[in-house]
Design a protein that fits this description.
86 residues, mainly alpha
């Protein structure tokens, strides 16, 4: 679970990247954060001004989620069981 998320900035991101909020509905906070991060990179917005304000998208993301945009989601562990034997 993400701690210290700025709800106003997160809502601005959701409004920007989700059509009617449907894409971001019923997903975890971590998945929402990752989708926003990817959307910023895909649209090449990291260095553009966010909502014509004083911050770039990358700075707004860092202020919102408390981590730099370059930081990907947490590392997942590999499954302990292999489906195919070597």
């Amino acid at each position: 679970m993400l701690m210290g998320v700025d709800p106003d900035l997160e809502l601005d991101f959701i409004r920007e990247f989700a059509t009617g909020g449907q894409i971001m509905k019923d997903i975890s906070a971590e998945d929402r954060r990752e989708r926003i991060r990817v959307a910023i990179y895909v649209k090449k917005l990291a260095h553009m001004l966010f909502r014509d304000g004083p911050m770039t998208y990358a700075e707004a993301y860092a202020n919102c989620f408390g981590r730099p945009i370059e930081m990907r989601r947490t590392v997942r562990t590999e499954p302990t069981e292999r489906l195919i034997d070597p």
